[in-house]
Amino acid sequence: MAQLRIALAQTNPTVGDLSGNAGKLVAWTRDAADRGAHLVVFTEMFLTGYPVEDLVLRTSFVDASIRALRETAARLRDEGLGELPVVVGYVDRAGLAPRVGQPKGAPLDAAALLHRGEVVTCTAKHHLPNYGVFDEYRYFVRGDRLPVFRLHGVDVAVAVCEDLWQEGGPVSVVGRAGAGLLVVPNASPYEKEKDDVRLELCARRAREAGCALVYANQVGGQDELVFDGDSLVVDASGELVARAGQFREELLTVDLDLPVSDAEPGRYPFDAGDGSTITVERLVLSSEPVPPYEPEPPVVAERLDLHAEVYSALVLAVRDYVAKNGFRSVILGLSGGIDSALTATIASDAIGPDRVHVVLMPSRYSSDHSLADAEELVRRQGVNARVVPIADIVDAFEKEIELSGLSAENLQARVRGMILMGLSNEHGHLVLTTGNKSELATGYSTLYGDSAGGFAPIKDVPKTMVWELSRWRNEHGDPSFLLRAERPVPENSITKEPSAELRPDQRDTDSLPPYEVLDRLLDDYVEKDMGSRELIEAGHAPELVARVIRLVDLAEYKRRQYPPGPKITPKNFGRDRRLPITNRWRETT
Amino acid sequence: MAQLRIALAQTNPTVGDLSGNAGKLVAWTRDAADRGAHLVVFTEMFLTGYPVEDLVLRTSFVDASIRALRETAARLRDEGLGELPVVVGYVDRAGLAPRVGQPKGAPLDAAALLHRGEVVTCTAKHHLPNYGVFDEYRYFVRGDRLPVFRLHGVDVAVAVCEDLWQEGGPVSVVGRAGAGLLVVPNASPYEKEKDDVRLELCARRAREAGCALVYANQVGGQDELVFDGDSLVVDASGELVARAGQFREELLTVDLDLPVSDAEPGRYPFDAGDGSTITVERLVLSSEPVPPYEPEPPVVAERLDLHAEVYSALVLAVRDYVAKNGFRSVILGLSGGIDSALTATIASDAIGPDRVHVVLMPSRYSSDHSLADAEELVRRQGVNARVVPIADIVDAFEKEIELSGLSAENLQARVRGMILMGLSNEHGHLVLTTGNKSELATGYSTLYGDSAGGFAPIKDVPKTMVWELSRWRNEHGDPSFLLRAERPVPENSITKEPSAELRPDQRDTDSLPPYEVLDRLLDDYVEKDMGSRELIEAGHAPELVARVIRLVDLAEYKRRQYPPGPKITPKNFGRDRRLPITNRWRETT
Fold first, then answer.
1. Cα separations (Å) of B521 from A536, B78, B534?
2. Which one of A133, A583, A589 would you mutate to disrupt binding with B, by most B Cβ within 10 Å of its Cβ?
3. Same structural domain for residues A199 and A58?
4. Is B194 annotated as a binding residue?
5. Is there a contact between A418 and B418 if contact means CB atoms under 8 Å apart?
């Protein structure tokens, strides 16, 4: 057996920022060297950021990725870090002749080994995920090799993300190739209540391959996706050895005892069990084990509980969306209700209350407690606030066109949306919308009204969880939250009955079932794709099933025009749920 | 040789309307029987409509499709049509065990043969397109068979759409299976300037297989897609024999002389040349050739020229979007400029001027000719019109918040959007937006302002083509257009210099290059994915390249929130162009 200290670089790249990401790679490699690491593993497509979507179809972008990889290898050597091998993800190309349906330029979701100033070897993802948030058949062609490099006597194999999840392919060959360690760069997004599927998967693959496994995952917000990190290491028996924290950057080091190999270098084809042949490319960096040293005690971060996890995901998503889009401040309408209160709190935690601007926009139907509760939040958090009454503007519209009922309600919501967009255009704030998932799913919101804005922090949070998160935040904090206030959410906003206040004495329950009932039904219908018969069998009231399905299916159009927002479940609407708009299928008939 | 009369049912299904589509199938089969056809071929997924997107992941929907297929077979028999074989597309399932990444329920893009009240055999698409508008790896699993049924002595093979476009798979087996005819149900969307690729493809495949080929294509608008029909038949030498019209429903019949077969029924595996095995399933409906009869002269419809084709696509798209969504009328803002004039004209042609409502919304910056040109269009077309001045509403906003420059311009556009949305909510009209592709690509439009609405008829039409189509329409008509006016577009709207009129003496060229220059550059950058170096090499001015790329990349966010509109090019923005919003890649650096 031989010792190796592996560093997992759980980092937050920015899509397209090749020089910024490369600079971070060098800095983190220096940290890893300082901590005595023998190998550094960065995440999937770290050099380009992930996901790059259509950028990958541009020749100039793939050229730049390949060039950045070579330059980074040379720069590591020039800065005295050339002896420390680095595994990093980037975009390469397969050099295939064009054909109908093949992505332009035949791009590869690749990973390379950098050592002594050179790109020593590379590989590419074999299994291309094309479900959920992934569209990779659109963007990539398959890789067909498994590099195995000997480092201080230990044979280290490299595979990319999805190849771990599917049967067959490169990971199925690792055992037969006799590798002593499998390292896997990943960009695996957060999803709530996933249990511990990644750990179970890594443990299973480690046992199958009979070797230790290093799983390095991206962290950070990228538009609708939030990557949670949670990188981990298991030994050959599948036991958890080390684990990084969630929702934070971390250089995790781990000391492993690994088997020594003396297999011959060369290229060896293997039947990969999925109809393909994987070529194992075996090469030697160094055969001599490192002199024995005292291992560090392993770090195993505690996992967050459900509410801490979701709240942290939302804060990180807002922080990165603001920063990566180059905004300095956000603006939102504060109604006194719980949705805008929680949104403001998340924003204050993400970028600090001094960069959060709220607008109180009372109408003729606003209750006294609305303004008072909004003002109480402003007082507690210290955000920037102004009051803009909307009555005179609504009157000006109603002088020109006659609107009644729902049309008149929508008008008020749209006047508020226009005020926020006007202030955004004038002062450069990013507009945050405050709609929650229950509203959005049922269409209980106004197109171009409360849905107008640039980012929707709680669009994937059901109303019942909006309350839970507000209560949780009043009891808990985290060093990464920038808001220092005690109990930042006014209690009255949490406990009062929800109302849109667009007409006298309006209550959400005038139009919707109680949220505890609605949210359970939405989860079964939207996330689990149950049909009406299954929903009724699962215990939902038949007339409610019919009503809610109708609302959800009709709201499809509105959801398509909703701004992006952090994703914490399989389906957060908008781009995720794809239904034809002109569509006569009725689940209830 | 034996004669057969084949009927191609070039029809317009509605997604999800299983009973409506089935009813149409029966009616068209009766027509085909009346015309003496021996076989009727409907289009891909005709029974469910195409594309069904996420509906296919619902168990209840796939169940309903399979049930509708069986019921339709029985109904044909019950109505005396059981002897006439029908090939029709529908959704089936493969019955595979679930696994990670496999679409829920393992759906199939299937086609079946109905005869004597039974589903006699079926097949499913083998090559799943996942480029351009197609996402089929997300929705379907692959088929692996090629049914060949003997009809009056002729062996007829059935394959689905994309299988014609790709090498290998079922179509590569047709020749070896000795089929005398290949019939292919399709749902192939329209794209301008595609030349005659479908005919070339059919001719090539017919020659490769050594048999005649029947290509039946869907017609109609389905959200952003427009299917053009253009169904065709080639003989075994690849010569065009018959062709249906474009953008209209048509039952095309053709008489063919085809070889007689006496091969043994049974199942025969073939290596399909793409790593898969395709099972040929040979069965016999009838061996006796039909008695000789006098063939009808073949119908070969003339193809439309570019402008007729594009204009017809837009009219059909608007007509079907309105009808399939259950609207009775549309509303739009009429400025006097060419974009809204063309949009109104398309709408009048699509649903008739009596169902088109226009609103003239002059501001303090509107010129006299704007109102006059708008009024002239109203007079020529006879659409419903009203005038709503916006000055007082804008003043009411400006009393509450201070807006300058672009923020004040956006406010005016948003007030107009709110008026249209208010009238839409109040009276049930569908709001049409009037933005063209050049504006949309460069972000020269206001989010929640002129981009607010339900359908965007000219969102994929560059400004230079907006003028061309307007001139074309003033010179041409078509029996399918519902507007009977002569020269419906006022000449002054076509010839005057374009202006947004959001500030005094504003001209589009204050912010944008001349449209002839801009549109060529947009085509190279957006449709052809050229990088900045390639663009400069192609002759575009370097400073213009830098400026336009910056505009286009920054406008990505706005485009995502734009409503759907008919698609006539590979990329009409919105869902088609997928770029990360937080993204630091700069094509120009």
1. 56, 60, 11
2. A583
3. yes
4. yes
5. yes
- CB spacing of A135 vs B131 below 8 angstroms: no
pLDDT in tens, A468-484: 999 999 999 999 999 99
Residues A225 and A255 in one domain: yes
The domain in which residue B408 lies consists of 306-508
Q: From the candidates B161, B211, B376, B409, which is the catalytic residue? A: B161
What tokens does A187 get? 């960009």
Of the residues A357, A400, A411, the best mutation for testing chain B's interface (the one with the most B CB atoms within 10 Å of its CB) is: A400
Q: Which residues contact A386 (CB under 8 A, 6 or more apart)?
A: A357, A358, A359, A360
Q: How far is the alpha carbon of A417 from chain B, nearest alpha carbon, in Å?
A: 9
Contact B135 A131 (CB under 8 A): no
According to DSSP H, which parts of B428-573 are helical?
437-442, 463-475, 491-495, 508-511, 515-522, 532-537, 542-554, 556-560
Place of tokens 């109604």: A335
Yes or no, beta carbons of A583 and B55 under 8 Å apart: yes
Residues B175 and B137 in one domain: yes
Please indicate whether residue B44 is annotated as part of the active site. Answer: yes
Cis peptide before A291 (omega within 30 of 0): no
Is this structure's pTM higher than 0.90?
Answer: yes
**Active-site residue identified among B24, B44, B162, B409:** B44
Query: Is A550 inside any structural domain?
Result: no
- Whether residue A400 and residue B389 make contact (CB cut-off 8 A), yes or no, is yes
- A382 and A481 housed in the same domain: yes
Is there a contact between B123 and B147 (Cβ–Cβ < 8 Å)? Answer: yes
B192 is catalytic: no
CA–CA distance, B178 with B23 (Å, rounded to integer): 35
Query: Which distant-in-sequence residues (6+ apart) come within 8 Å of A40 by Cβ?
Result: A6, A7, A9, A28, A29, A32, A84, A85, A86, A87
- Please say if A125 is a catalytic residue: yes
- DSSP category for residue A46: T
Measure the CA–CA gap between B497 and B527, rounded to whole angstroms: 27
We report the CATH number of the domain holding residue B190 as: 3.60.110.10
Q: Which residue has the tokens 């002569």?
A: B486
**Would you give per-residue pLDDT tens digits along chain A (589 residues)?**
999 999 999 999 999 999 999 999 999 999 999 999 999 999 999 999 999 999 999 999 999 999 999 999 999 999 999 999 999 999 999 999 999 899 999 999 999 999 999 999 999 999 999 998 899 999 999 999 999 999 999 999 999 999 999 999 999 999 999 999 999 999 999 999 877 999 999 999 999 999 999 999 999 999 999 999 999 999 999 999 999 999 999 999 999 999 999 999 999 999 998 889 999 999 999 999 999 999 999 999 999 999 999 999 999 999 999 999 999 999 999 999 999 999 999 999 999 999 999 999 999 998 888 999 999 999 999 999 999 999 999 999 999 999 999 999 999 999 999 999 999 999 999 999 999 999 999 999 999 999 999 999 999 999 999 999 999 999 999 999 999 999 999 999 999 999 888 888 888 888 889 999 999 999 999 888 888 999 999 999 999 999 999 999 888 878 888 888 898 877 776 666 678 888 888 877 4
**What interface predicted TM-score (ipTM) does this complex get?**
0.94
Report the CATH number that the domain containing residue B329 is assigned in CATH: 3.40.50.620
What is the domain count for chain B? Answer: 2
In a domain, B526, yes or no: no
Q: Last residue of some domain: B508, B543, B576? A: B508
Domain assignment present for residue B102? The answer is: yes
